[in-house]
Amino acid sequence: MQNNALKTYQNVLKETMSGRETEARVLTQGALKLIDCQKNWDTPDRNARLDNALRYNQRLWSIFQVEVAKTDNPLPASIKKNMLLLSRFVDRRIFETMAFPSPEKLDILIKINQNIAAGLRGSPSGPIE
Questions:
Q1: Among 31, 84, 86, 96, which is disulfide-ready with 113 (CB 3.0 to 4.6 Å)?
Q2: Could you report the per-residue pLDDT of 36-91, keeping only the tens digit for each?
Q3: The domain containing residue 19 runs over which residues?
Q4: Cα–Cα distance measured from residue 76 to residue 66, given in angstroms and rounded to the nearest whole number
Q5: Has residue 128 been placed in a domain?
Q6: What CATH number is attached to the domain comprising 73?
């Protein structure tokens, strides 16, 4: 019964969140997945955790790329350009980390997600854990 209530709450939350809130939430979720990898780097399931976190972030940033590149996207051209450049950097870092894993390589991905999420919320960024 409690599980059904949680699912209902999550569905209502998804339907009522603004686009900015949703983007901030998924960026935060991406950062949390990467933080979890760092904290559990020496566990036996590290590779699965890392793969899951990197693929989640890769999908997230791919969606951002598609949305920013749309001709009807209302963002100013300079912001679009910067977001596309940033997403290219994120893509390269994700692929580099997949090829040569190291917990330090996750730091910049975590910070990027946290800072953009904070900006979308209109709040100063701070570490999330």
A1: 31
A2: 999 999 999 999 999 999 999 999 999 999 999 999 989 899 999 999 999 999 99
A3: 2-121
A4: 16
A5: no
A6: 1.20.120
